[in-house]
Amino acid sequence: MNLTLQIFLSRLSAALLIMWGGGFVLSAQYARVLTTSGDRTQSLEATTMKAYGNSTDDAIILRPSRTNQEIDGFGYAITYASCYNLLKMPENVRKDLLRKTFSPTDGHGVSYVRISVGCNDFSSDEYTLCDNHDSSDHLRHFSLHSDEIRYVIPILKEILEFNPSLKIIAAPWTPPRWMKYHEERGESPDGDSTGDWTGGRLRPKYYSVYGEYFVKFVKAMEGNGITIYAISPQNEPLNWDNSASCYMPWTDMADFVSQGLAPALKRAGLKTRIYVYDHNYDYDASKGLGQEQYPLKIYQRMGSGFEGEELVAGACYHNYGGKLDDIKEDVIWGDRQDKELIFSEASIGEWNDGRNLWARLSYEMDELVISTLLNRFKASLVWNFMLDTNKSPYRPKGCSTCYGAVDLNASDPSDYTLNSHYYIMAHASDAVKPGAKRIDTEGWWANNLSYAAFLNPDNTTAILLSNQGDTDLDVKVHSNGNTYLMKVPRKGVVSARMDFPTSAVSNIEVADDNGRDVNGIFHDLNGRRVTDPCPGEIYVTSSGDKIKY
Question: Rounded to the nearest 10 degrees, how much is the dihedral formed by the CA atoms of 409, 318, 362, 430?
Answer without folding.
Answer: -80
